[in-house]
Amino acid sequence: MKKKLHCEVDCANCAAKLEDAIKKVDGVQDANVNFLTQKLTLTAADERFDEVLAAVIKAAKKVEPDAVISA
After folding, report:
1. How many domains is the chain partitioned into structurally?
2. Full residue range of the structural domain in which residue 51 is found
3. CA 47, CA 40: separation in Å to the nearest integer?
4. Which DSSP category does 1 fall into?
5. Single pTM value for the model
6. What would the mean pLDDT of 6-32 be, rounded to a whole number?
7. pLDDT above 90: residue 37
8. Which of 4, 7, 9, 14 is the least crowded, having the fewest Cβ atoms under 10 Å away?
9. With pLDDT > 90 as the criterion, what percentage of the chain qualifies?
10. What is the DSSP track for 9-64?
């Protein structure tokens, strides 16, 4: 499943760090963080999407505590 989520980040460098961290989360097939549109495009298996999203949010908080990811 590919889903677009709101991803509030402060700068392009933060977005790049988030994207790298998110791509390392188990279950993430692909991820793209766009600083200009404040969007995260996340691709993961349908049956595990909620579980993967929770892990992505946790990983994002470790890398960038001010980042906000929401549906």
Report:
1. 1
2. 2-70
3. 19
4. -
5. 0.92
6. 96
7. yes
8. 4
9. 96
10. -SSHHHHHHHHHHHHTSTTEEEEEEETTTTEEEEEE-GGGHHHHHHHHHHHHHHH-
pLDDT more than 70, % of the chain: 100
Rounded average pLDDT over 14-43: 97
Q: Beta partners for 31?
A: 42
Is the pLDDT at 33 greater than 90? The verdict is: yes
> 36-68: buried (b, 16+ CB within 10 Å) or exposed (e) per residue?
eeeebbbebeeeebeebbebbbebbeeebeebe
Dihedral through CA 53, CA 58, CA 64, CA 68, nearest 10? 50
Query: First vs last Cα of the chain: how many Å apart?
Result: 14
Distance CA 3, CA 26 (A): 17
CATH number, domain with residue 27: 3.30.70.100
